[in-house]
Amino acid sequence: REAANTSQAFISSVILSSDGLSYYAVIGLGDMNFRVSLDTASSDLWIMASSCSTSTCQAVPRYPLTYESATYRAVNENSTEFAAEYADGTIAAGFVATESFHFSNLTVSNQAFALISDSNVTMIDDISGILGLGFPRISTINATSTNSTPFFPGLAQQGLLQYPLFGLSLTRNNTGTLSLGAIDSSVVTNLSNVEWNPVVDFPPIGNESNSSSYYQWAIPLTSLAVNGTLITLSPSYPTVTANHSIAMFDVGTPGIFGPWADISKLFSTFVSARLVDEAAGQWAVPCDSAITLSFTFGSVQRNFTLQPTDYIIGEASGDPGLCLAWPVALDPSPDGIDWQFGTPFMRTVYTVFSYGIDTLEPPMIGLYSLSNVTTPDSTAVINSFLASASKVIGTTLPNSLLLTPSATTPAYSFNTSTPASIGAIVQVALATSTYSPIFGIVTTVPDPATLNLSAIPLITPSPTIATYTVTNSAGMISTSVSHFSVPSIVLGAPPGWSSAGFTARAPGLTSLLLFTVIPSLLSLLLCCTLLDLLS
Question: Residue 139 and residue 152: Cα distance in Å, rounded?
């Protein structure tokens, strides 16, 4: 596995899916293009193959196995199996292969991925698979195949990026970006306002190893406040997590989720809020609620505030005055992750995922707030948001008040005899130690004044709109706006291939798009719960 590029940075557009729940991207495999879901809670890349005959497979572009791609390489004669089973009961199964991989101007040869020959995973918008951006520890392919490092970890381990990080800007109007190796300077205009949080590492499971390692993009959640009033957090495993509530950040989760104990206390502060679906952990609040939710992470008291237009899902059909709202309550997870912050939260920040450096630096999550407004949205703003959303959620509200259930905490999944900590320095599996660390050894949120912020690489997206000012011979000034044309691309078929392909326009900065529809592991059940609510 090697890349055809030296250390560089890359940036491309992030596009909101047609249902408004997730984001998609276009990548290249060989000389073909595919749309993939982006997921920071999984690590593998998989694509539907032409051999998959299920109705869900046939609805999307598939990798044509009968086409002899010059860059395709079989792994063990296509006998290395891949299987993923998700919390909603859906599956994706197939085999491992390698192919040249393209992202923006980046080319990686011999990238390991899975070709799916059997799946009942439903995808929309011609999405053909998933691109995971998580740690190798949660990679199925990495566990079953040699020389099969997941995509982003491979770039970091080979030193192919200016710095081993990626950044995500998520928007509702298709102006977001995904950058590799640098931070989008058109969004982050003041690096000193980025809060950097060291990631939590996790102990081994059973005989997995004798040391802790990084598992998910997760950091401590320090506090939660409703209109400035603090809510006491109740970690599910306080002894194991040193009394920290652990929060995961996942672009593959179209919601915000937390434990029953915290969520019930949160909504008890809303006037007339009520639990409306015990099985889904769903609350409804008055649609005109002028209330903010604020979160702090790590050890710095920097508030990240959600407005009603950030956490309100939509109007409930059973009662026009009530709206379903995030966060949704979940039973405790045996991995100790209590909170999951998905796209509703991530749209309010620019999120940086710094991968860490072997022996020198832990992984870090950087959060840059996109608004400094802490006062609640006005009723007029909320009403305008609900009108523009034009989505009334079919919901049968209970005729009586539901009691908050008592959640049972399962046994902790990991080996408690092996210590784990925040910001642990590990010897392998992070970025190559040839990188010069910017953060160094940190276990708490560092003071920006102590960091060499000028060493953080920046990248600027190419413009998609140009404004021209013209002065004619008479001295009259006119202004015009021009949109740069974006070529169409064919999905799932090489140039000149006789089989019918899917033609799509590639909006945004380049031909890369971004989407998230199938979060992995813990996140998948949550996604499906939301889809049930919105169906």
Answer: 12
Please, how many CA atoms are within 13 Å of residue 200, restricted to the half-sphere of its CB?
23
Residue 447 annotated to the active site:
no
Place of tokens 């802490």: 374
Residue 139 CB coordination number (10 Å): 22
With H, G, I as helix, E, B as strand and everything else as coil, classify residue 248. strand
Under 8 Å between Cβ of 281 and 267:
no
Of 126, 184, 201, 250, which one is the catalytic site residue? 250
Cβ–Cβ under 8 Å, residues 391 and 314 = yes
Query: Cα–Cα distance between 1 and 194 in angstroms, integer?
Result: 33
Phi-psi region of 327 (alpha: psi -120 to 50; beta: other; left: phi over 0): beta
459 neighbors 179 (Cβ within 8 angstroms): yes
pTM for the model stands at: 0.89
Task: Say if CB 1 and CB 75 are below 8 A apart.
Answer: no
What are the distances in angstroms from CA 499 to CA 28, 30, 35, 496, 502? 18, 17, 18, 9, 10
- Tell me whether residue 19 is one of the annotated catalytic residues: no
Structural contact between residues 266 and 240, judged by C-beta atoms closer than 8 angstroms: no
509-521 pLDDT per residue, tens:
333 322 223 333 3
Q: Report pLDDT digits (tens) over 319-337.
A: 778 999 999 999 999 999 9
Q: What is the largest CA-CA distance in the chain?
A: 83
d(Cα 36, Cα 25) in Å, to the nearest integer? 5
The number of C-alpha atoms within 13 Å of 265 and in the hemisphere containing its C-beta is 14
| Domains, in order of start, for the chain | 2-177+486-521+530-534 (2.40.70.10), 191-456 (2.40.70.10)
